[in-house]
Specification:
The complex is a heterodimer of chains A (about 250) and B (about 325).
Chain A lengths: L1 E5 L2 E3 L7 E2 L4 E2 L6 E3 L1 H17 L2 E7 L5 H10 L3 E5 L6 H15 L3 E5 L10 H9 L2 E12 L2 E8 L2 E8 L2 E5 L14 H9 L2 E4 L8 E7 L8 E2 L3 H11 L4
Parallel strand pairs in A: 1-6, 1-8, 6-7, 7-13, 8-12, 9-12
Antiparallel strand pairs in A: 2-5, 3-4, 9-10, 10-11
Chain B lengths: L1 E5 L1 E2 L2 E2 L1 H17 L3 E6 L14 E5 L9 H15 L3 E4 L3 H13 L3 E6 L5 E2 L2 E7 L4 E7 L4 E5 L14 E4 L10 E7 L11 E5 L9 H11 L2 E4 L1 H5 L20 E5 L5 H7 L4 E6 L6 H4 L2 E4 L2 H19 L1
The chains are: A alpha/beta (about 250), B alpha/beta (about 325).
The complex binds flavin-adenine dinucleotide and adenosine monophosphate.
Amino acid sequence: MKIAVCISHVPDTTSKINFTDGDTKFDTNGVQFVINPNDEFGLTRAMWFKEKQGATVHVLNVGGPETEPTLRKALAIGADEAIRVNTAATDGFSVAKQLANIISEGGYDLVIAGRESIDYNGGMVPGMIAKLNGANFVNTCIGLEVEGYGVTAVREIDGGKETIKTSLPLVIGGQKGLVEESDLRIPNMRGIMQARSKPLHVKEPVDANTETKAVSFEKPAPKGAVKLVDNVNDLVNLLHNEAKVI
Amino acid sequence: MVLVYTESEGGKFKKIAHEAVSYAKGVADMLGTGVTAVSINATDASELGTFGASKVLNLENDTLNNFNAEAYAGIVSEAAKAEGAQVVILTSSANSKFIAPLVAVNLNAGYVANVTELPGSASPFTVKHSVFTNKAFANTEINTDVKVIGLAKNTYGVNENPTTTEVSSFSAEISMGGNELVSVDKASDKVTIADAEIVVSAGRGMKGPENWGLIEELAETLGAATACSKPVSDMGWRPHSEHVGQTGKPVASNLYIAIGISGAIQHLAGINASKVKVVINNDPEAPFFKAADYGIVGDAFEVVPQLTEKLKAFKAQNA
Ligand SMILES: Cc1cc2nc3c(=O)[nH]c(=O)nc-3n(C[C@H](O)[C@H](O)[C@H](O)COP(=O)(O)OP(=O)(O)OC[C@H]3O[C@@H](n4cnc5c(N)ncnc54)[C@H](O)[C@@H]3O)c2cc1C
Ligand SMILES: Nc1ncnc2c1ncn2[C@@H]1O[C@H](COP(=O)(O)O)[C@@H](O)[C@H]1O
C-alpha cells in the first residue's frame, strides 16, 4: 500500500497571533512552526501501516522552502520520502488541486490528511482532493483499518461515532483517535540522522486557480474584566438577569 | 437566489437549520433575491417559512435516512444547479463540514468555512470568518460565480421572518458513492457538545474521575452537555469525545462553565466562540479568569454542589 500523508505547516499551538502590513499578513516573527496536530495523528497511524503491513509512506506539502524543516521532522518520525510543491499555499482549493495532482501521478492508495489545519481551519483540502480524484472520502476519521482494498473507518459525528465500510483509493480527514496522544513519536537521534539522507523532492506547481483570497485580518475585541462574585446566589442572579443565559 | 441546506434528524429540523435559514434570508436581502431551502426527509418542511425561506425542496427517500456524504452533497449540488443558486449556505455541523468541500468542487465554487457575520460586501463578495482556532478573524473574498459559505454555530442567531412558503418535492439522481454505513453509536438521551446551549466543563482540578458526579449533576440541572480539558481525556477520566480545545472539539455555546481548568491558550482557543464564560477555580491567578465574564474563586468541591442546589431552586421557582 502506498500512503500519502498531507502535512500542513502551522504555528505551534501556543503562538500569539499577530498581523503585519496593515493587518493583511500573518506575522511569523517569533512564531514556531510545527506539523499540524491532526496530521501528526495521521502520520503516526501511517507509521503503524508501514511497520505492520509494509506500507510505503510519503509526506506531501504545498508551500515555500520554509516548510522543509517540518517535512524533515516527518521524515525523522519515519516517513520514507517527502514531496514539496513549491508554491505558497494561498487558498484551500488551489492547495487541494496541487495535492490531487501529485497524488494521482504518484498512484497513492490511501491519502491521510487532517480534519482541519489549526491556522486557517478551512477543513476543505481533504474533501476537495477526494472529489477531484474521484476517491472515497471519510471525514473526522478516528479509526482506520485496511485489509487489501477493503477499509473499515470510524468517524466522529455530533454526539457519537459511526462505522463505515469503504475501499481504496480513499482520502481521510483525520484527527486524534486515529492513534492516541501517548502513541505520538518524538524523533530520536537515529531518525533525525536518517532523515537527512531521505529524499525530499521539490516539484513545481501545476496551474491552479485560486477561488478565495484573504484580504485582511482582525483580532477579537479585547475582553472586559471578569466579574468576580463570592457566592452562588449572585452568580445565578447575574447569569439570569444580566447575561440572560439561564 | 440563495440556497440553504437544512439539516434534520428523525424528520425534525435542528436548531442550526433555523439559524442557517435566518442567515440565508439576511444574505438574500443583501443580494435582492429569495431563499430556497433544501431538506432531506423533513416531516414538516413548511416550518422553514418562519425564518424566511420562500421555497423548500424536500427530497424524500428512505435510503437516505442515514447520512451519506456523497449522496447528500450530490443533492445539495443538484438543488443549487436547478435553482441557479448564487450562494449556497451550509453550517458547521460535522455533516455539513463533511459535504461542503464536495459541494464546492461539484459547483466550481469557492468555499469559506466558519463564517461569523453577514457578508461585509456583496461585490466583491467578502465574508468574515474565524481563523487560527478563534484567535483571529479573516475577511475573505470569494471570487467564483457560485459561493459556498459554512456558517459558524451560534453567531448569527435565529430570526423570525415569516414568509409564505411553497414546499415542493424534489428528486435528484442519487449516488451513494463507495461508503456504506455499518453502525451508528450515539447516545440519544444526552445533549451533545455540538448542539448544547450550555456546556459544563471540568479539568484536572477535579482530582479524579470518581468526582465527576458533581459535574454531571450540575450539567443535568442546566440541561447542559459535559466536556473536559485535554489532560482529563488523555488520562482516561473522561471519553475523548468530551475533550474541547484547539486540538479537540470547538465549543460555541451560549454559556460555558469551566471548573478546575487553568485556562491554557490551547484550551481557550477552542472555547473562545462561546458567548458567556464562567470560571470556578481556587487559584485567583489562574489564567482562565482573564478570559472569563464571571468567576468564583473557590474550591470546586464546595462551590459546585452549592451552585447545583441554587440552580435547582431557581428552576423550581421559574418553572
Ligand atoms: C499541542 C498541544 C495541544 C493542546 N490542546 C489542548 C486542547 O485542545 N484542549 C485543552 O484543554 N488542552 C490542550 N492542551 C493542554 C493545555 O496546554 C493544558 O495543559 C491543559 O488545558 C490543562 O488542563 P487543566 O486546566 O485541566 O489542568 P491544569 O492546568 O492542571 O489546571 C487545573 C486547574 O484546576 C484548579 N484547581 C485545582 N484544585 C481545584 C479545586 N479544588 N477547586 C477549583 N479549582 C481547582 C487549579 O488552580 C488549576 O487552575 C494542549 C497542549 C499542547 C502542547
Ligand atoms: N499546504 C498544505 N500542504 C499539504 N497539506 C495540506 C496543506 N494545507 C492543508 N493540508 C492538509 O489538509 C488538511 C486540512 O486542511 P485545511 O483544509 O486547510 O483545514 C490538513 O490537516 C492537511 O492534512
